Amino acid sequence: MSEPFNTWQARFEKLRSNKLFETVVIAIIVLSAMTIGARTYDEVSQFEQWLTYLDVAVTIFFLVELLIRMAAERNLTNFFKKGWNIFDFLIVTASLIPMDDSEMVLLARLLRIFRVLRLVSMIPELRLLLVALIKSIPRMGYVALLMFIIFYIYAAVGSFIFHTVDEQLWGNIALAMLTLFQVATFESWATAVLYPTMEQYPYAWIYFLTFIFLNAFIFLNMMIGIVLDVMQKESAQIDLESGEGEAAEIQGLRDDVRALRSQLDRMESALQAAAQAKPSLAQPGQAKPDRDE
Question: Three-class SS of residue 142?
Fold first, then answer.
């Protein structure tokens, strides 16, 4: 590549990694979110024209910012190798849909709402949270399946025993599961479910407390533990890739130990080879005295 191109590419790369530039981008994203929220109030209808100008300015800024990030890459294909870059590209290009067309105004406004998600791509901590949440979904699925089994068992028991209390709460297993969901979320469960049930079944509190203990304490903490475990692994992986943090130090120590072991193995092999190649020294024999004939 030519020298001027490399110079401009280096400048764009420096600008992209500049903390002030990242802060400005985050501030513009927040401003964009505020303008979207402002359009939902009737009081700001008199400023509709100014909001439109502001939306155009924000869209142009995002487009320029995207072009700067693309120009900062030595090879344009490297830009599209990262999923977050593809996400930003789709969001920004979708924002170019004009809002003047009455048929497209709803779609354009909906797409502009998703520009708030660019905060996730700009802030590493939010990316870590989102990635950890996505990767923990398969493991949480088994916990959710176990929760469903417990819900189903308790709903079946409740519909058999408490159906005489209130048909709207315990009439069938589907209604019973909805009632138990209300209990699990603690949404007026005592006054709407517990007390009316205990009027006919005084020992019903055992049923409800065991259900709450299983779902609100055990299963919920299991899900939280899964997310925290995945977050810890992702954070360690990021530290390892960046060469910082405790994980990177541990990996460095492991590499040093492997290098020392390799050196010791080579030294041991060299000593064994030297010992095998060394000629055996003949032991000097004692001369026998001549016999006189």
Answer: helix
- Taking the C-alpha atoms of residue 115 and residue 37, their distance in angstroms, rounded to an integer, is 12
pLDDT over 80 (residue 88): yes
Please state the rounded mean pLDDT for residues 204-214.
91
Domain boundaries along the sequence of the chain: 3-122, 126-238, 243-274
Task: Tell me what the mean pLDDT of segment 78-82 comes to.
Answer: 82
Q: Give the phi and the psi of residue 12 in degrees, each rounded to 5.
A: -65, -40
Polymer length in residues for the chain: 293
**CATH topology assigned to domain 126-238:** Helix Hairpins (1.10.287)
Indicate whether this model's pTM tops 0.85. Answer: no
Q: What is the 3-state secondary structure (H, E, C) of 64-113?
A: HHHHHHHHCCCCHHHHCCCHHHHHHHHHHHHCCCCCCCCCCHHHHHHHHH
Class of domain 3-122: mainly alpha
Cα dihedral 260, 261, 267, 272 in deg (nearest 10): 170
Distances in Å between the Cα of 105 and the Cα atoms of 42, 58, 89, 100 are: 17, 17, 21, 7
**Residue range 173-184, pLDDT digits in tens:** 999 999 999 898
Query: Is 58 in contact with 91 (CB distance < 8 Å)?
Result: no
**Contact yes or no for 26/123 (Cβ under 8 A):** yes
Q: Positive or negative, the Cα torsion across 129, 132, 134, 140?
A: negative
Question: For residue 1, is pLDDT > 80?
Answer: no
